[in-house]
Amino acid sequence: MTRAVAVGVDGSPESLAAADWAAHEAALRGVPLRVVHAWSWQPLDVPVVQDREAEAESARAVLAEAAARVGGRHPGLDVTTELLADAVVPGLLAEAGRSEVLALGTRGHGALMGFLLGSYGQQVIAGATRPVVSVRARDGGTTVPAEGEILVGQQGSPEDSAAVLGFAFAEAAARGAGVRAVRAWSLPPLYAWSPGSLALADEAGGLEPFERKALRAALAPWRERYPDVPVTEHVEIGSAGQVLLSVVARAQLLVVGRRVRRVPAGARVGSVAHAALHHAPCPVAVVPHPA
């Protein structure tokens, strides 16, 4: 079964920017676009007059507006809409699970809000089993960047970063863009030093050459699979979030990973993804991968 690209909308400029991005993504992939809005009737325990049908009609109007917008810009695109009869987070998590990628809008440079209020957007990103892309409206409008490189953060071993790099290279190939792969590193704490680790660093000629070698090894299979995608290797000392944000101005898309693991307080986004989602001006794709 062909997975669609999905987008959650609420009628805001941010969600319309996400719809624009998702429609372009679906056209590039040659797959359908699903426009969804999570709404369910929830009577309030307060003396406020509620009109169930009026609220439902308003929700359907949100879907119709977004569908008309993307349909007009992409006449050949297969666009469907659905009113998700569920609470916001469960509804969108289920939608993400059956989609190639789910797009959501982001508002401002502070807390992630977008289509959803409070922490809902972050909860979806933290719990999704498929990639989720956060899209920010630019300059008060809904234009999303269509030029620039695909910026991707690489951490750990080639196996650790396979899902993240695979997503980034596929995006670059579809868009005719280059990839800038960033590996940030820091001096290990004293207790982490061992004769074995020192020997590996010495063989590579030092800590930074060791990190460059590790990045090249992680990129090798993707360079072979996508020989026409230009690749820039970027190795720099510092925190991963800071290093990525220092070069994000040239990017049309930033791709970061999120380890899929459960902690007592529930799923987490991770520090690198958190920094990217709150501060990157371009769309940010968060790709889940095994811990």
Describe, in plain words, how this protein is organized in 3D:
This protein is an alpha/beta fold and 291 residues long. The protein has two domains: 4-136, Rossmann fold (3-Layer(aba) Sandwich), CATH 3.40.50; 149-290, Rossmann fold. It has nine helices and ten strands. The chain has helices spanning 13-29, 52-73, 88-97, 120-127, 162-175, 195-204, 207-225, 240-246, 271-279, and strands spanning 4-8, 33-38, 79-84, 99-106, 132-136, 149-153, 179-185, 231-237, 251-260, 284-290. Strands 3-2-1-4-5-10-9-6-7-8 form a ten-stranded mixed β-sheet, sandwiched between helices. Helix 1 (13-29) packs across helix 2 (52-73). The radius of gyration is 20 Å and the shape is globular.
CATH topology of the largest domain: Rossmann fold
Main sheet summary = 10 strands, mixed
Integer-rounded radius of gyration? 20 Å
Roughly how much helix do the residues carry, as a percent range?
25-40%
CATH superfamily of the largest domain: HUPs
Low-confidence stretches: 41-50, 108-118
Strand coverage percent:
15-25%
Task: Please write the CATH class name of the largest domain.
Answer: Alpha Beta
- What is the number of beta strands? 10
- Could you spell the SSE succession in H and E letters? EHEHEHEHEEHEHHEHEHE
CATH architecture of the largest domain: 3-Layer(aba) Sandwich
Structurally, how many domains make up the residues?
2
Shape, principal axes of CA atoms: globular
Q: Give the structural class.
A: alpha/beta
Widest sheet: strand order?
Answer: 3-2-1-4-5-10-9-6-7-8
pLDDT averaged over residues: 83
Number of alpha- plus pi-helical segments: 9
- What is the first-to-last residue Cα distance? 28 Å
